[in-house]
Amino acid sequence: MNGRRLRMGQDGYLMYDYVSDYFTIVVHHDVQFVNTPTIRYTGKKVNYFDLCHVEAMSMVEINDMIAELGYGG
Predict the structure, then answer these.
(1) What does the pLDDT look like over 23-72, one tens digit per residue?
(2) CA distance 50 to 13
């Protein structure tokens, strides 16, 4: 982990400097598609990974984020 942090279900974004090397990833997950009578989804959760660094982001980091949300293994 590179100093990023997980916020669960809180609205809003952190304000970064215009030329900041940090950013936030917003993850929409835990949805189910239903077909009654039209296709729609239910049960959405929204989580935020703040303070992600541009030089530390990698597939390893993304896999760690997925694990923090309780997915994967």
Answers:
(1) 989 888 888 888 878 888 777 888 899 899 999 999 999 999 999 999 87
(2) 8
> Residue 11: CA atoms inside 13 Å, Cβ hemisphere, count?
0
C-alpha to C-alpha distance for 38 and 20, rounded to whole angstroms: 43
Amino acid at 60: V
In the numeric block, which tokens belong to residue 59?
């597939």
Report which secondary-structure segment, H or E, holds 8.
Answer: strand 5-8
Q: Is the dihedral of CA 63, 69, 71, 73 positive or negative?
A: positive
Burial 11-27 (b: 16+ CB within 10 A, else e): eeeeeeeeeeebbbeee
Nearest alpha-carbon partner for 46 in 14, 69, 67? 69
